[in-house]
Amino acid sequence: MVISLRKARTLIRKALEKGRELGLKPLSVIVLDAGGHVIAFEREDGAAPGRFAIAQGKAYGSVMLGMAGTAQMQRAEAQAYFMAAVNGVYGGQVVPVPGGVLLRDRKGAVIGAVGVTGDTSDNDAIAAMAGIEAAGLTGEI
Amino acid sequence: MVISLRKARTLIRKALEKGRELGLKPLSVIVLDAGGHVIAFEREDGAAPGRFAIAQGKAYGSVMLGMAGTAQMQRAEAQAYFMAAVNGVYGGQVVPVPGGVLLRDRKGAVIGAVGVTGDTSDNDAIAAMAGIEAAGLTGEI
Amino acid sequence: MVISLRKARTLIRKALEKGRELGLKPLSVIVLDAGGHVIAFEREDGAAPGRFAIAQGKAYGSVMLGMAGTAQMQRAEAQAYFMAAVNGVYGGQVVPVPGGVLLRDRKGAVIGAVGVTGDTSDNDAIAAMAGIEAAGLTGEI
Amino acid sequence: MVISLRKARTLIRKALEKGRELGLKPLSVIVLDAGGHVIAFEREDGAAPGRFAIAQGKAYGSVMLGMAGTAQMQRAEAQAYFMAAVNGVYGGQVVPVPGGVLLRDRKGAVIGAVGVTGDTSDNDAIAAMAGIEAAGLTGEI
């Protein structure tokens, strides 16, 4: 299953709406395909200029490792040098915290990932899940 | 003047519509702010996975040099080693061809750039301009 | 459609056999998935140590641009600075010559790419196509 | 002694079979020569796309340092900044955990390395050793 641009748009729009509803800081949301390549990205007015790279890093590490942000954070806390090394082999593009969410199809295969950044990592993940559900997809935090 | 996410969305949507209207290949469109940082990006279904980097390269070089794609291309054709050197100092992120369009405010100050890729460079620029006009902005090809 | 490891193995084995049959120099063959990530690679005895990167570069550029080696070479010959710039945005991983072959499914969607290196670019492409046909896939040189 | 492609194939095939026998997650296996260059690699169906880089990082660090994964991990735990610095000089390509296995000839000289990734680091090393023994080589975990 391939994530269409139409679904990616819905996902981003709804994740941002969730952020407004909860009164979160300005968010940035990215949707990557199963190869870790960008389908769509939006940064809300008022967000810091460097948010693209953080959103991408959360989602990119999730796809490349097949491991969502929460699991990456646990590994980073247990074995910091391992996640540092993983970051080396992926060109420094991995941000191992919640807000990186794996997207799976009905059979469980990874079809892409979402990265949200701007508020706390946990709130970022809540906004991501709201968008994922609105787009009819299944997310793994 | 700052480009709002609302304007960036309109710009991208209308650029993609122009591509459909003209029967172009699947397009990818990026909008950068005055610092060269991503505000929004969309890649149409069927576009090659690497299109983000090319769209970004067209727009990034435009902002960083204050020179749109056509002028960059002329410089590249007249003095290839200069643009190669420029690419070195900007980390290889400059793609000096049409489809990179500068955005200016009424006083002529650069407020960002658009990058479109997917069809011929000239058609990419046409789609970019359609989006820019629909968003009420002024573009320099 | 996803390229299985089983198919990738058949493809590589048959491409190498073709090279032996034609008396080519030692070959190296890579198979990438639709996101440009390595599924399998083999380097024949006697090949130079750096062949992995060349095989990967031929196949990676093909996937990322959605353009096979022959088309990349034509673009490089017509507009050298453009392909140099493309190489910049893809981290110097693009080798724009024949031997990079796109793999498509029945609907024409890109499902991956093959990269062969070791002999002349044209012979590399012949070996690639032999492997691709033996694996029941469709290649675009 | 040079590792032939024939031996590398046997090694990979048997390591993957061991993984299936033990019910491990999908594995990826790389074989590098004495210069740290890729001879062969295979990624099983269902493995995350980024597994090549991790397999390579485990094996590359082993060859370049002449120190297998377990010894690298001990050094990383005792002196994290040293392994971080080592990673800097090797371009971020070192992943210092078990699953990186040194290959030695009868006189003890390093002739290459194997990298396995996909399950726990310890299980990765078990699969690597099964492949190494099947290929008639001697491994150091």
UniProtKB/TrEMBL annotation, chains A, B, C, D:
InterPro entries to which the protein is assigned, alphabetical: GlcG_carb_metab_protein, PduO/GlcC-like, PduO/GlcC-like_sf
Pfam annotation, one family: HbpS-like
PANTHER family assigned to the protein according to its UniProt record, in alphabetical order: SLR1406 PROTEIN
UniProt cross-references to SUPFAM superfamilies, sorted A to Z: GlcG-like (SSF143744)
Origin species: Ruegeria faecimaris
Protein name stated in the entry: Uncharacterized conserved protein GlcG, DUF336 family
